[in-house]
Queue: 2 jobs
Job 1
Amino acid sequence: MRNVKDRLRAWDFKEILAVWVFRICACGSIAAIALICLFLFLGGGPAIIEIGLTNFLFGRSWAPLNIPAEFGVLPMIAGSVYITVGAVIIGVPIGIFTAVFLAFMCPKKLHKLLKPIINLLAGIPSVVYGFFGMRAIVPVIRNISLALTDGGSGASILSASVLLGIMILPTIIAISESSIRAISKEYYEGALALGASHVRSVFFVVVPAAKSGILASVVLGIGRAVGETMAVVMVAGNQAMIPIFPEGIFRGGRSLTANIVLEMAYATDLHRDALIATAIVLFCFIFLINIIFTFLVRKDKN
Amino acid sequence: MKLTKFIDRALLVLTWLFAGLTIAVLAYIIFHIVINGVPHLRLSLFEIRHTSANVSMLPSIVSTLFMVILTLIFAVPLGIFTSIFLVEYMKKGSRFVNVVRSAAELLSGIPSIVYGLFGLLFFVEFLGLGLSLLSGSLTLSIMILPLVIRTTEEALKSVPDGYREGSFALGAGKLRTIFVIILPSAIPGIFAGVILAVGRIIGESAALIFTAGTFAQIPDNILQSVRTLAVHMWVLSGEGHHINEAYATAVALLAVIFLINALSTLAAKKIFSIA
């Protein structure tokens, strides 16, 4: 129907012009991706070549002001991984159980109240989270750290993990809840009919059926955590050292994102290019996470 | 039998506990900010000029407003036109649609600091726009583009095909149908998306530090460096002796986000009442 109309109107100049305007606009996001890749790789690529890929990725020391300077991002990769894993350990169980609660256990009226609250949690700016973490989480962690180990300022991997665990909650809750709700009611009713209790039907039939959607929410949460910048900078301590488990979680660590924010303002020459190269590493992580996410969502739809 | 019952009980308790924890954490964050911030919301924080003695947030509020308007001017038409092309002109599942959609998805996953770095390399240095309102808003408009595209697409898809067919049957052209019939019926959905985008612009800091800078006065033109409210708060929290003012700024930010959320919920409700 629409096609026939297209052909009938093909002579109309205004229509043709509009199609081209729309088409060019539609290419905008492709162009944006291309430009971002181009400028990141042009800016950071030469630095990676100059430093050497293995020296860059697996170098254990980041000392840009030393002579000779050292540019190893392994401490930052480790920092990002530690912080993210911590955030997942804290945020994922809480998020999934809350999603189950919202989908199955909570009265309709309460749901109406809770949903906007969780949306609000998603809307709070990361600086506000970071500031809250600095003022409320770091002191608590400092006390725990003083009690368990022989020091620590509180600005640590653990503080960042707790804060990011909170920050990824809305993502995990929203996507998990909708994928749990998308499971057809018959699963739940069938389980009930077979004599399973309400709780059992939910946790052993419905939740497993929604597992790829739930997993997708976790992957998206990981993406958030890896990419978060300001909140992490404000609570993580930012020492560019590879954390040593277990007492290392009470010590400071630096994420890939923090590395860029902290040093970009004064970096010059190779140092600056090495920071752009840090962004390339970050971009690759995000790209990988995005691929896994797309794969999971597709699986969920099938 | 006993074990099963125990597991049931334990899972139920865990569910209530964790859901309660989520709410408690959010309540505590808001309580903490409000209790510490509201007493410091002095009138002097809303003076026209920012000085090192009086870190007024009014210039930052005005700058944030400019940033929001300018960013929307760039991103909203681009996003809406993209969605129109994807929904109204392309067949479902065509290759081009998939490519654009993947690009938008990838864009929405990119961390804001990477946007900031890109903005610095491209807008600030390559195009020579400098640390400015313009560079910042161009950077942010790429950042919110996927959000605008996704919500507009949903809104356009929710317009019943009968509207289009009716319009064609009356002899209207495609362009006229889109602008007179389809877009007006999709407006609440588009509006909800735009409000979410405004929320992201207001809350953004990492992408702005290296593109718009931190100059804390009301700008005269779009090529001047500006400091939005979120960036202002970041700067204050870094200087140890402005903690109270940082709390006050946090209250202002929270209030705006609260308002925006309420607005978007309202807009979303309107969509359902139409459909």
Job 2
Amino acid sequence: MSIPVTILGGFLGAGKTTALNHLLRRGRERIGVLVNDFGAINIDAHLIEAAEADLVALSNGCVCCALGPDLGASLDRVAARQPDRIVIEASGVADPWRIAQLVRLEPGMTLDAVLVLADATSFAAQSRDRYVADTVARQVARADLVLLSKTDIATTAELHASRAALLQLRPDVPVAEIHGGTLPDLVLGNPAPAGSRFVADAPEHGFRTWLYRNDDAFDEDRLRQMLASLPSSVLRAKGFCRLGDIAQLHLLQLVGRRFTLAPWPHPAEPGLVLIGTDRMPADADLAAMFERAKRPESPRP
Amino acid sequence: MQAPVQVFVARRVITMNPAQPFATHVAVRDGRILAIGGLDEIGDLGPVELDTRFADSVVLPGFVEGHSHLFEGAVWRDPYVGFFDRRAPDGRVVPGLKSIDAVVARLREVAAETASSDAPITAWGFDPIYFGGRRMNLADLDAVSRERPVVITHASIHIMNVNSKAMALAGLDASTDLDGLVRGLQGEPTGELLGPEAMGHIRRRVVADAFGRKLDADAMARFGDLARQAGVTTATDLVSDMSDEIVETYRTVSADPAFPLRLAPALAARFFGVPEGVARWQQLQALGSDTLHFGLVKLVVDGSIQGFTARVRWPGYHNGAPNGLWYVAPSELGGIIEAYHRAGALLHIHTNGDEATELAVDMLERTLIAQPRPDHRHTLQHCQMPDPALFRRIKSLGLCCNLFANHLYYWGEEHIAQTMGLARAMRMDACGTALRMGIPLAIHSDAPVTPLAPLFTAWCAVMRLTSAGRVLGEGERISVADALRAITLGAAYTLKLDHLVGSLEVGKFADFAVLAEDPLDVEPMRLKDIAVLATVRGGDVFPAA
């Protein structure tokens, strides 16, 4: 089984370390984290099961490892512990998409998403800074999702300025706000696609989910066009759907502006879940968009 | 019982001590200079052994290479396929290959020598910029082998060429999304790969090229062989991870009486968190010796100019390429500098582009105001593009510069055409400006990026000729005497080893470069052609041949 890999990027001070600390401590999945600054990770002593020079194993099944100069070797080290997910912290000046490109070439791994954190209190200033403006622009340019952090301490003016700066860099950029330095589960993605329980918990603050249950087949071209034109308030989509004249089952995975539709050879119940910000179109509008992507007369399996 | 006194006699000794610039006799005891001058100065030493083997030669302080990598000794395990002739550790001069066809023919020979093998073929030093725009492609290297992966690393170390087999092994094809994958007009990969990410992928999945392997004692010995032939007696290893293993290798190799060099490795900050790096540097201080010096810390702020990854100021790259990359966050640089500065380390800071240099100067200024440290000797490495105003700030802060004079020859034409344009290229590696301002100056090869050969490096700073024969920045040329100082005492000063090496004075180590001709007498154009006959480390003679 392929291990999903999430890249966490963003400039210094955007909150990457805070988010990773939280992720490790919570241990909802067995996560293997590759961190850029190993010294900054602060794990409660009682959680530490085993520690080496640049690797810490936690009692909750998570493992945290220093990201060495050789990304591949570091990935191998973490993958050997068979985590449910790997999260790679990009350096504050790196373009995280370049790491994603390498991950996609790794056998046994699947790129889940490139998440870029942006500090709501300072992103606007960074995007004008003579030294770092182009660096943060490159990080945003190919991010799947931008997560505005520190929204709880940013002034309204700072928040508006940060959003405006992001849109100026990239008008179609999907942006979500996060609170308390924590990566919401919905944003981290990977809600189990099998079965009927797509979303276990109530949506987190500032996010909405929408479920679509339908056994009719979509027209592949129409569906692709529709997915490509979804508003940036749709952050993720995942689930199974039928495509084409033989109603072949496909797995849809969408994060930000990027999606894959791959034939799914196993039995599964069709149904999709969309995760978005609270600006996501109304349920009825979303339903209408998906209805219009169906085949004119949908064959049944 | 005193050790015997050995007196070397030379046609002329150039001391680099302005109070006594020339001599004919150097007396040595216990590896150090006991007396220097003429017959008078050695007349009161009691019995001496006169060594006349250099009586017809010219003796200088052993050259100090202030920016090299011991990897130069490791790359020679693979065939060299560069454009220029280059001396191998065994003394052979490997002829340059003047066309892609010649490179392919050479690699076919290499493949034939190991015909029974299915092992990968790797080579290094390739430089297509002299081939009139023609780039190497997959078909070229498929002509070497279709069954074995072929991986060629360019001279710049920032680019690779591979064959179809290597592409397949690496899982790369036209559909691959990878920034460093160079494509042709139809979007098809050409087999050229740019940058550390794409090259790292090849090293991992196909084969480690010469630059992806481990540095070991054998590689250091080969570096010593090259140094001996180039007149170098002190050399830096300017990026080191300072693992226990490598530190032990430095100690073993440098303690060997048959090794002709003193080593000054630099702890590369990027391998450590800041507190861990400072702690490691402090541990290392107890592990040095007369032949091993651990004072240096290396920071890398940006990339390279010819790779378009250096951070440059207005008006940016001449060909419109986007600005380069920070290798450390601008907001973090100040804290890193301060931590190592406070610990007492001597910082060697790589800045190629002038924006990177300006940032480093800003951060050094902040640290030096908060934490003044007389005689810090912090040094800007490469520092290829500052304008005079930035050099004035460098002077004011007491910083040293080690400029990349060899770039003028090897990439000068490229800088004119692609990276900087003529006007800015003329001020690159501005040795003249630095000296006019009184900035302590060294010049370097960055071996293996360019060959370890300080007389050639001095020639570059004196002549400023590109490989096409054009003078690049007449106003930045320096005198032969100044250039010789830059490759001896100047470089030693930047390493804070000038009390030990770099000039010939009583009390300092008896480290010499022995030359067949007097560099102050020959036509400056011939400076690079002067034969190195031997080196001397601590009184022990190492013949060049």
